[in-house]
Amino acid sequence: MMTIEEILAAFQSVPEGQFPTAAVEAALAQQEAITPFLLKILEVTPEELDAQERAQEDESSVSFTFSFALYLLAHFREQQAFPVIVKFFSTPGQIVYDVTGDITTEDLHSILAATYNGDFSALAAIVSDTQVDASVRSAVIRAMLILRAERQLEEEVLVAYLENLFDTYPRNPEDIFWSFLIGDAVQLRAASLRSRIDQTFDDGLIDGFFIDRGSVDKTYSGEYRLREHSSQVDVMSLANWVWFQEKRQYTPRQHQPLDIGNISAKPQSFLPLPPVETVKRETPKVGRNDPCPCGSGKKYKKCCGK
User: Fold this and answer.
1) What is the spatial distance between Cα 4 and Cα 255, in angstroms, rounded to a whole number?
2) pLDDT, tens digit (0-9, with 9 covering 90-100), for 194-213
3) Burial grade of 52 (CB within 10 A; 0-12, 13-18, 19 or more)
4) How far apart are CA 217 and CA 212, in angstroms?
5) pLDDT, tens digit, 9 for 90 and up, residues 7-40
6) Which of 112, 152, 239, 284 is most buried as measured by Cβ atoms within 10 A of its Cβ?
7) Are the CB atoms for 123 and 162 separated by under 8 Å?
8) How many CB atoms lie within 10 A of CB 207?
9) Quick one: 149 exposed, middle or buried, by C-beta within 10 A (0-12, 13-18, 19+)?
10) Which run of H or of E encompasses 51?
11) What distances in angstroms separate CA 173 from CA 125, 204, 214, one per listed residue?
């Protein structure tokens, strides 16, 4: 069996198209021994993690040490990881989303619920901090919904918390969190929240791209099914990430040559084209760890470089 050092080394340099199955299986088999190492890995700050990724010169392989540590600890349902994860994702600004990408939007809610140690105030502190990325705060609300569904949090407590959040959170129409909050809170179908939800629409706080009144009506009426979220985190699900997928070779389609033998007169489009000038690159090549030139704010490897 692989040693802890060998497992972490395998996570540190993962070639494109190769999921480190053996290393993951070895980590799962040595839960108690590897947990302290995984907790230590998560103590990095988002800025430090970003710097580490930028310093990686070999673009043929990528470090997934942080990601595997995060998912393994959630897979283990390790409560010691909860305050470390909370601290990392409480970092102000967009840097957290920049270095975690889809982890925040797709799995953070399950990760938080899986490692939850009973400290509800830690979750509430993230939500109320307007400096924290809105997608992170929305993930925390969804984590609360999971905890309520799995009976780790009383529904009355959660509803009372959301009522207070609606009443006290800054009513800034520029804050996209309001739209996220409605999309999450409506899942409770709580009568006491309905008037507050309607008021947010009346106050112009909601971006209709994310949710509209019709969707709220259909969710409350039962016409729309509630979202199904779970605290179950399977580290093997990372094998579905784009980086681990084997690239397929592109085979151009074979086109038959155009038969113009029976065309009596060649149209204008068949006239010879002017010579094509060689275009010189005016901007430097974008590295996989550089900001994507599309302006998304993500790294190139996590955006257009996928």
Assistant:
1) 54
2) 999 999 999 999 988 889 99
3) middle
4) 9
5) 999 999 999 999 999 999 999 999 999 999 999 9
6) 112
7) no
8) 14
9) middle
10) helix 46-55
11) 21, 7, 20
